Amino acid sequence: KLGNKGILKLMSRIKDRRATFKSVIAFCDGSSEPVIFSGSVEGEIANKIRGKSGFGFDPIFLYGDKTFGEISRDEKNKISHRRVAFERLIRWLLEHKDVQTI
């Protein structure tokens, strides 16, 4: 298992640290081809692990001057690649399917 420490070690001499978090969701009701929705957030790989919030790569993914591991869940959810993908799916469902909102 590589983990965050392993990634930082592999990237120790890498100057271009740009990174992207991307989520992709597919919807298929069986009557047509799948519809794909994606969301992404641009950032960089930090030089060290920072923060204890979130999970996975959050402590090494820099967004602005903070890692995802340093921001609150509410802050992260406002810019989350997952949120963007799900919002696009929901918007499409409301426009194209007979869906009732809760």
Describe the 3D structure.
The protein is of the alpha+beta class and 102 residues long. It has one domain (3-96): Maf protein (Alpha-Beta Complex). It has three helices and four strands, in the order αββββαα. The chain has helices spanning 3-10, 73-79, 81-96, and strands at residues 18-27, 35-45, 61-63, 66-67. It has a four-stranded antiparallel β-sheet. A hairpin with a 7-residue loop joins strand 1 (18-27) and strand 2.
The number of distinct β-strands equals 4
CATH topology: Maf protein
Low-confidence stretches: none
How are the strands of the biggest sheet laid out side by side?
A: 1-2-3-4
Helical coverage, percent range:
25-40%
Q: Averaged pLDDT, please?
A: 93
Radius of gyration: 17 Å
Oligomer: single chain
Q: Could you give the distance between the termini?
A: 41 Å
Order of helices and strands: HEEEEHH
> From the 3D coordinates, which CATH architecture would you assign?
Alpha-Beta Complex
| Sheet having the most strands | 4 strands, antiparallel
CATH C-level category: Alpha Beta
Count of DSSP helices?
Answer: 3
Name the structural class.
Answer: alpha+beta
Strand portion: 25-35%
Structural domain tally: 1
Shape: elongated
